[in-house]
Design a protein that fits this description.
The protein is α+β, with helices and mostly antiparallel strands. It binds one RNA strand through strand 11 and helix 11.
RNA sequence: CGGGGUGUAGCUCAGUCUGGUUAGAGUGCUGCGUUUGGGACGCAGAAGUCGCCGGUUCGAAUCCGGCCACCCCGACCA
């Protein structure tokens, strides 16, 4: 196909909008791929929609390849389905009423609706089933940001599997994992599949697909490539502290006015990694002491996991009541509250608060001086060592481009989706759900494929194959070149606008098609064109008569 | 929801503190001419309810009050 730029709605911008921060946000807006309508609500302009649909088609092909069936479910959803699964109360759910006050949901995923249909599955003979659709999702996001990375409305490919049992679910899960790997590979996106939190989806296990880039997740990877995890569940091995000489029993030392770890470590002349930090919290009305090493931070997500429930920091009054001391002087020794200690504190003797204002204890040892439940509650830090190989761990921002869940019977139970198994017994369908965001994928690709001049689209998702730049007076030769490329099957963007060469080249760099062909006055002399690769900037001269597909 | 910031031409911004001709610049846009392989130049021109509502004042983009929108940080979250 041949598309003339002079007839396209292609309002490229010389400058990025003032409020853009992320690179993908700036370049996609400048290149006329997208425009913002409202906070977190975006229009795909013609060029951007072509990219989106390229990504969609790749996803579609890989989903079909694992035997999934495409369908389409509505956005408007009766609230009763969401009430049944208990998700109606989630604050991020968009809710509305019709003229008769009937309640509806604009869903963020379609578990309820698909399971409504799955009730038509009657027999084990009809299993397994894998169904998917591409549909608009709504999310009352508290803080949209960064262009396409965090939005309130977006199109998602979500698929759902139903199996007889755990084994079948595992098979469906692995099929999706494989399909996702192939999808991101075809998009030339560097992605790490990591174990993740299931959040509001529920279920037993989930895997996140994180693409390094300006996103809201933090990816932890080992320099040797054998470990990758989301920061919220990552395990790292902290450095070994320099312990002072061991003591037979804790020894109280006066630390007047000293409340921070740095100050304690300096006053007592010990490694801050040989101290402990007490983080008193209140969960379900009771005080619990979270204990991490002095140089570590308490990871709130892991703490919730360890406690099995949400918590909040204790107030100063609650601290004084439970520990009988000021917040800067509390510790695990001789207290009545439950102590949840980080694994890093299992071995060795540490400095801890004495539960006596202005005093600390040296030589405090877990098991001997206090009892604690050990858990992984520290936040992984840059420079920790890898739990697999001892290599250095690295932290980087990443975009979550896909997330797959083993939901088990989380939705089939409340919605009563059952089947009759071979043994004649009625059983609950075992379910999985698998999401991927084409727009986020698109943004992540830009994060990973760009330079100072603009985007460098991978061939697989580029909106057109060839950017054909025509310089004045060469219109007919350009038409000839375009026709030739079109015959060879390439999609051609023909820049026939009445602009200067410099502007056309700058726009070509910004828009970022993989190949640029220039028809200029030199062509009149030798009948050849310049072919330039966007990725490498290398240029070669090829006679028009020798031109074939440049894909 | 808490903290901070910004709303003036399509875009990027000055002007607001210290109220006072007809509200400005760059870029973009229109026309004419010269140019034409990396965002050219000249001339002429179009374009703004100064976010909205109210108040103070002889007079408000500017001061006061309220509201709205957008951005950033945090909380939350995929």
């Amino acid at each position: 196909m041949i598309r003339r730029a002079s007839q396209l709605f292609l309002p490229t911008l010389r400058e990025a909008p003032a409020d853009a921060e992320a690179i993908s946000h700036k370049l996609l807006v400048r290149g006329a791929f997208i425009r913002q309508v409202s906070a977190g609500v975006w229009t795909f302009l013609p060029l951007g929609w072509r990219v989106h649909e390229k990504v969609v088609q790749i996803i579609r092909e890989e989903m079909d390849a694992i035997g999934a069936q495409e369908m389409l479910m509505p956005v408007l959803t009766p609230a009763e389905l969401w009430r049944a699964t208990g998700r109606y109360e989630i604050p991020e759910v968009f809710k509305l009423r019709d003229r008769n006050e009937r309640e509806f949901v604009l869903p963020m995923t379609h578990e309820e609706t698909i399971t409504f249909h799955a009730r038509e599955i009657q027999s084990y003979r009809d299993l397994p089933q894998m169904l998917y659709h591409f549909q608009t999702k709504e999310r009352d996001e508290p803080r949209p940001r960064a262009g396409l990375i965090r939005v309130r409305e977006f199109i998602m490919k979500d698929s759902y599997s139903y199996d007889r049992d755990e084994e079948g679910l595992d098979r469906s899960f692995q099929l999706h994992k494989g399909a996702y790997d192939r999808i991101f590979e075809r998009c030339e996106l560097e992605v790490y599949a990591v174990q993740a939190e299931s959040g509001m989806m529920g279920g037993s296990a989930s895997m996140d697909f994180l693409a390094p880039g300006d996103g809201s997740n933090t990816l932890v990877t080992c320099e040797r490539g054998d470990y990758a995890a989301d920061l919220e569940v990552a395990r790292g091995i902290p450095r070994v502290p320099e312990f002072p000489a061991s003591l037979d029993a804790p020894e109280e030392v006066a630390t007047p006015g000293v409340a921070t770890i740095e100050a304690v470590a300096e006053l007592l002349d010990v490694d801050d990694a040989a101290t402990s930090k007490a983080m008193p919290v209140v969960a379900d009305g009771r005080v619990v002491l979270g204990l991490v090493r002095g140089d570590d931070r308490l990871d709130e997500v892991k703490m919730v996991e360890a406690l099995g429930e949400a918590f909040r920091p204790a107030t100063e009054d609650e601290i004084r009541e439970a520990f009988g001391a000021d917040p800067g002087s509390i510790g695990p020794v001789g207290v009545a509250v439950e102590v949840v200690a980080d694994e890093a504190l299992r071995e060795g003797q540490f400095v801890a608060g004495a539960n006596k204002s202005g005093h600390h204890l040296r030589g405090v040892q877990a098991g001997r001086d206090f009892e604690a439940r050990f858990a992984n509650i520290r936040e992984v830090r840059e420079g920790d060592t890898c739990p697999n190989c001892g290599g250095k761990l690295r932290l980087q921002a990443a975009i979550e481009v896909g997330h797959i869940f083993k939901l088990e019977t989380r939705y089939t139970k409340p919605l009563g989706a059952t089947f009759l198994d071979e043994d004649g017994k009625e059983k609950l369908l075992v379910m999985g759900s698998y999401g991927i965001g084409p727009a986020r994928t698109m943004a992540a690709i830009v994060e990973q494929h760009h330079d100072e001049d603009g985007i460098r689209w991978p061939r697989s998702v580029a909106p057109y194959d060839v950017h054909l730049v025509v310089l004045p007076g060469l219109e007919e030769r350009a038409d000839e070149v375009a026709a030739k490329l079109d015959d060879a099957g390439d999609a051609v963007l023909l820049d026939d606008r009445d602009q200067r060469a410099g502007e056309k080249f700058a726009d070509a760099d910004l828009i970022g098609l993989p190949v640029r062909v220039t028809v200029g006055k030199k062509t009149l002399e030798d009948g050849a064109v310049d072919i330039r690769a966007r990725e490498t900037g290398t240029e070669e001269r090829v006679a028009i008569e020798d031109l074939g597909s440049l894909r």
